[in-house]
Structures are given as structure tokens and as C-alpha cells.
């Protein structure tokens, strides 16, 4: 069997042009496109790219707000066998240049969001760059930054409409380069395959329940692996896409009401913004339509989970754990399901760590340790794993015999039910008095105290202990920080908090008694 039997993200175009032919599949501002119109736009753009001489292995960077045009570019680039390298529109000029020096794009596609650094780019020569494209119709401000700018519409109009195309593949099956800074601080390009995206899409369809009747709100940017993977899953299943340029709680909630959104993804900060926006409001128009929410990028606190359920009472709430190097989610967990028990919440935060659920069907996980404990480094392997870092090192790997596993860099365990428990980051470990202490472990205990609203734990150099554990805590508004060495005027209405109180609390929770605490009030 030839290439035609291999995975390709553009295989979704057949479904969109047939089953969704006359149905609206994208809504972006005032623009609405049916499946037929969307596919025609992708094909016109792909033909235009071929006529410009672009093909397998060429890298095209895209830096823009979310829109249906962004989706079209991602698919058209993949169709001709080129590789999309999305850049974060929030980046500074310096960060954008560093990323492009890594991937060496031949074309840069931008919109108005990037004018500040795009204008500076004219003064910094990127040797590989041959063409600049405005995603939408370029404004006068945009044109002033460069006199040689193409537009998406110009490329489509110059294409040959009757040409019959078959999609192509880049070497190694790479389809996108997604950026992550990891622990280095510099952007690293993660090479991801067609197979990885398709398998990730199937996992989300199977576990979260994405379906063709869904109306999916793009809350996450398409430069982020979470936003990309859910977008492609929704394209594969034939759902409707509602695209807002960037996340703002107000515009997102308005879009939910206007378009009867059924599904979205969040990170904790987004959910907190939603909750804050609706503080004191008991009902709103979108309460009934939202049925599925997938949270990633960090766990939701119990307090935020309860607030989310109140705001979206009909929604099944999931959490996911993953990373760019694994094409998004490795594990999934149902936090709340209104159909089963409207009052029951999964207990996620416990002393042993944070439960992130069970691996997706395609994911192999194992714990690598020294044998002295059930806790160790979390390893994974399978078609979901990255191919390599672009123009750089191979991924962190653990080799056992002939087996090669991707090292996630996280430390955790797997219980008898197959649930994965995260303890912390391996490189964040603090060595204190001969003990290995994970900051996340201490933070979890501190957050169980009723007076603590937030906590960050770090290690500082210490002559005797090697490192001393220090916690900065944010106490709640009705608590007052006191020091036993200083006399305080304490309000009778205020509850008291001190380093001694917190140290005693940690000891009662069987936490090694090393922490020293510094107050931080809200």
C-alpha cells in the first residue's frame, strides 16, 4: 500500500464537503461558511501555494488571532506537504525571531495582531524567508510595514481552479511544529506527525464525546497544542466552529449565548475569569446549552470546580493531562457528570498527589524508578509522541533494552485502578537534608488549610541542608498574619495565621518539617 493509506489531517475534508456540504461549519465574526465553501477555500489556497513553488518539507510560520482563515491555512499547508509552524501572537519581537531562527520558514503569514513586531522584522534578516502574507485583507498600517505583501485572497484568486490535487506528506510525516519553551527558556520546536494529531482527535472524540452536532467555541489559540488538537478533532467529526479572535471572558460568554455553544476547552485561568464575570448572577442564557468542557493546562481547585459546575450546570466537566511533546492529552478524567449524580465531585487533590485520570486508549504509560518506591518518572510511548525537536536534540528518552520511551519530565505513580497521580516535576525537586521534596507536594498540603488561598514553594541555598524549603502563602481576606516574636494588635473579627501555625499544620499532615513561611496577604 502506498502513501494514500497513511494518515493525513486533510482526510477530514471529504466529510466536510459531503455530509456537511450545505451546513455552516465555521462562524468567524460576520463570516459564515458551509462545508462546501470551507473546503473550496482550503483547496484554492493549496493550489495557490503550489503555484508559488511551495511543497513537501517547506516550513510556513503563522502568527495571527483565531479565525476560519487560520484553520484554512493549517489545512492548505498540510495538503501540499508543507509544515505549519504556528507562532504565538503574544510573543515579543525577540521571541518571534528566536522561533523563526529555529524552524527557518520560507513564508510568514500574519495579521493585524502582529504589526508591532512585524514592522521590526523588516530590519532583522531571516535568511530563509522569501514571502510575507497578510492573513486577511491588509490594512494601510500593515502595508506600511512592507511593500511586498501578499494576501490570502490574492493567493486564492491566482490559483488554477480546475486542477485536480492529491495531498502530499513532508519527510517523516511531520505536519506541524509546535513551540514549547520547556525548561530552557528558549522556544523549542516540537515536530508532530499526522498520525499523532489523528490519534489525539480520536481520543477526544471517544472520551470527551465530541460529535457532529456540537457547536465548538475556540477559546484556546490555534498556536497552542490544546487549541490545535481540539480544533482538528472537531474538523474530523464535522462539528460547527465558532471562532473569536482571542480569549476574553466577556466575548466568549456572549458567543456562547449567541451561537448556543455546546463545547469548549479551558485552562484554570479562563475558568476563573468566567466565574469572576458571573459573580452574583444566578442565571444566564448559556447555562443550558454548554454540555462538555475539557480543562487542561493545570488542575482546577475544588473551589473553582464547584464554581464551574454552578456556572455550567448541564456540562460534563473533564480534566486532561498532557504536553506539547505528546500532542496534547495523555490522560483524561471526568470531574463532574450531571447525568450520573448532580451532587458528586471526584476527589482529585489528595496527599499522594493530583489524580489526572486514566490514559487514553492509544497511550502507553509506565513509571520508571529506582525500585525503592512506587513513585518515579512518568514515561510514555506510542504514535502520539513527538518525532523530535526541530533543528535540535531528540526528545528526552528512557531506553530499556530495545524499548525507547519518551520521558515526560513529571514524577508520579499509577494506582491499582490505572489512575495516574502527579507528584511534581522531576527538575523542580528540592534536595533538603538528604530528602527529595517536590514543591507541588508541599503546596497541596498548604492549600488544605482553610486560611490559605494560594501557595508557591521554592528551594533556597542553605549551608547545612543544601536547600531550604520556603513557602510564600497568600492568606484569605478574613485572616491576619502574626509573628510570635512581635506583639500585634489583632482584630477580634480576624482569624490568625503564622509560620508556626502552618508548620504545625504540615506536621499533622505527615509532611517533613522543613518549610519556613513568609506572609503574603491578598
UniProtKB/TrEMBL annotation:
Gene3D superfamilies with a match to the protein in the record: 3.30.300.30, N-terminal domain of ligase-like (3.40.50.12780)
Keywords: Cytoplasm
Domain AMP-binding enzyme C-terminal positions: 441-494
Keyword RNA-binding listed: no
One GO term of the biological process aspect: fatty acid metabolic process
Annotated TM spans: none
Cellular compartments annotated: Cytoplasm
Cellular compartments per GO CC: cytoplasm
Signal peptide range: none
Pfam families with a match to the protein in the record: AMP-binding, AMP-binding_C
PROSITE patterns: AMP_BINDING
Domain AMP-dependent synthetase/ligase, first and last residues per copy: 23-390
Alphabetized GO MF terms: medium-chain fatty acid-CoA ligase activity
Record PANTHER family: 2-SUCCINYLBENZOATE--COA LIGASE, CHLOROPLASTIC_PEROXISOMAL (PTHR43201:SF32), ACYL-COA SYNTHETASE (PTHR43201)
Protein name: AMP-dependent synthetase/ligase domain-containing protein
Amino acid at each position: 500500500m502506498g502513501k494514500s493509506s497513511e494518515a493525513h489531517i486533510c482526510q477530514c475534508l471529504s466529510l466536510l464537503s459531503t455530509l456537511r456540504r450545505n451546513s455552516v461549519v465555521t462562524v468567524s465574526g460576520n463570516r459564515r461558511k458551509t462545508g462546501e465553501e470551507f473546503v473550496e477555500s482550503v483547496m484554492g489556497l493549496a493550489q495557490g501555494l503550489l503555484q508559488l513553488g511551495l511543497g513537501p518539507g517547506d516550513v510556513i510560520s503563522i502568527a495571527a488571532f483565531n479565525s476560519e482563515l487560520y484553520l484554512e491555512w493549517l489545512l492548505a499547508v498540510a495538503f501540499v506537504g508543507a509544515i505549519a509552524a504556528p507562532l504565538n501572537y503574544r510573543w515579543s519581537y525577540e521571541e518571534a525571531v528566536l522561533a523563526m531562527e529555529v524552524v527557518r520558514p520560507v513564508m510568514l503569514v500574519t495579521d493585524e495582531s502582529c504589526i508591532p513586531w512585524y514592522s521590526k522584522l523588516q530590519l532583522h534578516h531571516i535568511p530563509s524567508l522569501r514571502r510575507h502574507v497578510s492573513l486577511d485583507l491588509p490594512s494601510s498600517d500593515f502595508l506600511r510595514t512592507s511593500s511586498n505583501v501578499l494576501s490570502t485572497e490574492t493567493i486564492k484568486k491566482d490559483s488554477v481552479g480546475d486542477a485536480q490535487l492529491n495531498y502530499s506528506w513532508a519527510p517523516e510525516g511531520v505536519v506541524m511544529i509546535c513551540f514549547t519553551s520547556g525548561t530552557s527558556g528558549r522556544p523549542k520546536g516540537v515536530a508532530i506527525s499526522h498520525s499523532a494529531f489523528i490519534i489525539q482527535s480520536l481520543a477526544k472524540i471517544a472520551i470527551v464525546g465530541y460529535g457532529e452536532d456540537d457547536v465548538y467555541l475556540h477559546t484556546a489559540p490555534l498556536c497552542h497544542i490544546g487549541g490545535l488538537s481540539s480544533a482538528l478533532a472537531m474538523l474530523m467529526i464535522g462539528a460547527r466552529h465558532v471562532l473569536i479572535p482571542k480569549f476574553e471572558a466577556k466575548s466568549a460568554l456572549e458567543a456562547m449565548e449567541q451561537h448556543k455553544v455546546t463545547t469548549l476547552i479551558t485552562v484554570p485561568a479562563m475558568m476563573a475569569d468566567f466565574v469572576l464575570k458571573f459573580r452574583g448572577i444566578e442565571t444566564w442564557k448559556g447555562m443550558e446549552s454548554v454540555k462538555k468542557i475539557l480543562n487542561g493546562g493545570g488542575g482546577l481547585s475544588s473551589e473553582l470546580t464547584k464554581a464551574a459546575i454552578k456556572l455550567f450546570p448541564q456540562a460534563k466537566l473533564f480534566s486532561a493531562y498532557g504536553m506539547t511533546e505528546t500532542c496534547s492529552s495523555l490522560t483524561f478524567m471526568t470531574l463532574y457528570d450531571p447525568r450520573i449524580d448532580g451532587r458528586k465531585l471526584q476527589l482529585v487533590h489528595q496527599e499522594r498527589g493530583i489524580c489526572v485520570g486514566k490514559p487514553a486508549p492509544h497511550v502507553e504509560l509506565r513509571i520508571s524508578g529506582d525500585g525503592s518506591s512506587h513513585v518515579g518518572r512518568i514515561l510514555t510511548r506510542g504514535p502520539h509522541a513527538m518525532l523530535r525537536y526541530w533543528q535540535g536534540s531528540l526528545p528526552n528518552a528512557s531506553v530499556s533494552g530495545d524499548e525507547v520511551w519518551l520521558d515526560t519530565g513529571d514524577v508520579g505513580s499509577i494506582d491499582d485502578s490505572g489512575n495516574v497521580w502527579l507528584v511534581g516535576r522531576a527538575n523542580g525537586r528540592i534536595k533538603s537534608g538528604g530528602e527529595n521534596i517536590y514543591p507541588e507536594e508541599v503546596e497541596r498540603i498548604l492549600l488544605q488549610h482553610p486560611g490559605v488561598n494560594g501557595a508557591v514553594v521554592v528551594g533556597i541555598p542553605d549551608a547545612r541542608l543544601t536547600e531550604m524549603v520556603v513557602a510564600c502563602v497568600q492568606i484569605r481576606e478574613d485572616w491576619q498574619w502574626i509573628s510570635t516574636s512581635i506583639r500585634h494588635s489583632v482584630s477580634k473579627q480576624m482569624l490568625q495565621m503564622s509560620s508556626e501555625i502552618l508548620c504545625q499544620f504540615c506536621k499533622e499532615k505527615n509532611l517533613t518539617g522543613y518549610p519556613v513561611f513568609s506572609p503574603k496577604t491578598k
